[in-house]
TrEMBL record:
Region feature (Disordered): 299-322
Keyword annotations from UniProtKB, A to Z: DNA damage, DNA recombination, DNA repair, Metal-binding, Nucleus, Transferase, Ubl conjugation pathway, Zinc, Zinc-finger
Function recorded in the entry: Acts in a DNA repair pathway for removal of UV-induced DNA damage that is distinct from classical nucleotide excision repair and in repair of ionizing radiation damage. Functions in homologous recombination repair of DNA double strand breaks and in recovery of stalled replication forks.
Reaction(s) catalysed (UniProt annotation): S-ubiquitinyl-[E2 ubiquitin-conjugating enzyme]-L-cysteine + [acceptor protein]-L-lysine = [E2 ubiquitin-conjugating enzyme]-L-cysteine + N(6)-ubiquitinyl-[acceptor protein]-L-lysine
Protein name in UniProt: Non-structural maintenance of chromosomes element 1 homolog
Any GO MF annotation of the entry: ubiquitin protein ligase activity
Organism: Lentithecium fluviatile CBS 122367
Complex formation: Component of the Smc5-Smc6 complex.
Extent of Polar residues compositional bias: 303-314
Domain Non-structural maintenance of chromosomes element 1 RING C4HC3-type: 240-284
Major enzyme class: transferase
Source organism superkingdom: Eukaryota
Cellular localization per UniProt: Nucleus
InterPro entries assigned to the protein according to its UniProt record, in alphabetical order: Nse1, Nse1_RING_C4HC3-type, WH-like_DNA-bd_sf, Znf_RING/FYVE/PHD
Length: 322
């Protein structure tokens, strides 16, 4: 095999080390940075045995150039190695993702059509049912997740707000068994799409946030209103004011009509920079209390609209969490 085709700029540096790097992502598509660093050290050392690389030699520019060279090669196949920061601890995760907006085509290789329909019901539960103006939980509790195994029978049984959604209900979708649902959930966790918290909530893991970014916004955010008289579009998926990535775990402005969201770390960084005085939302000037949450913490807080929540029985009146 001819390995010396360094004739175009993009492929100029592509060698066996990049092939090995891509290979590692093909066999395991989600890698935290603490796995990527020793992987690159090992690959480069194998590539040039005379020049041993240690973990400390692998700088961010080396990682970036490895990723860029691979991405130039695989872009035509609609794949890309992306990175995102964990919303809570800000650590980097890398993932080989499909860049086409139709992520479900890719899931179809591991799941049946009825299972895919189940996964969509899980997403609807996270981003519609458990994501209201009063409570942006954006997660689904273990038992509720299992119970979604049952497909809605007809339009009447659909959520009330789902006029639009009802049109999309496929009457051919069949329920799956509870055990099958648990297996799908398990697989989604193993594949790095979902994560399960200690309190038993399923939410989107970094890989899903990278792959489903477009899908989530297209599905759960309404397009801008055509007419001034139209009601403002419903926006259920919002980006962080700091890092501009989706927030499913973080903080929100206390003003329910305000669209400002932060990851905890991004918000703390911003408000640390604000010396003295009252901390205020940069968009609406509402006092920033830092205790209005996005994510499963929103379920525990005695929501300001306690009459509104159908899971208010779970409310435990904890106002402070950190
Ligand atoms: Zn952020
Ligand atoms: Zn605000």
């Amino acid at each position: 095999m001819n390995r010396h085709r360094a004739d175009t700029p993009e492929s100029g540096n592509y060698d066996d080390s990049h092939r090995a790097f891509l290979q590692a992502f093909l066999s395991d598509p989600v890698k935290p940075v603490e796995d990527v660093v020793p992987l690159i050290a090992k690959i480069l050392t194998a590539h040039e045995p005379d020049r041993q690389r240690l973990v400390n030699d692998i700088t961010q520019p080396i990682i970036n150039s490895m990723v860029q060279a691979v991405n130039a090669k695989i872009a035509a196949l609609d794949f890309e190695i992306r990175s995102t920061r964990n919303q809570e601890n800000r650590t980097l995760t890398y993932a080989l993702v499909n860049t086409t907006s139709d992520t479900f085509t890719q899931l179809a290789t591991s799941f049946s059509p009825d299972e895919i329909a189940y996964i969509k019901r899980l997403l609807d539960a996270m981003f519609e049912i458990n994501n209201t103006k009063a409570r942006e939980i954006m997660a689904v509790k273990g038992m509720d997740a299992t119970n979604l195994a049952k497909a809605p029978r007809n339009r009447q049984s659909q959520a009330v707000d789902a006029d639009e959604q009802a049109a999309e209900v496929d009457v051919n979708v069949k329920s799956i068994k509870h055990e099958e649902a648990d297996k799908v959930l398990q697989q989604l966790v193993t594949q790095g799409f979902f994560q399960k918290s200690r309190r038993g909530w399923y939410s989107l893991a970094p890989r899903a946030l990278m792959e489903l970014r477009t899908y989530l916004k297209e599905t759960y955010n309404e397009p801008p209103a055509d007419d001034e008289d139209d009601p403002p579009p419903i926006i259920r998926i919002r980006d962080c004011e700091g890092c501009r990535e989706i927030v499913t775990v973080g903080l929100r402005c206390g003003n329910r009509e305000c669209g400002i969201r932060w990851h905890d770390g991004c918000g703390n960084q911003y408000f640390r920079g604000q010396q003295g005085g009252t901390r205020k939302c940069p968009a609406c000037d509402t006092e920033w209390t830092g205790d209005v949450f996005v994510g499963e913490r929103a379920d525990r807080v005695n929501s300001r609209a306690s009459t509104n929540g159908r899971s208010s029985m779970r409310t435990r009146g904890e106002e402070e969490d950190n």
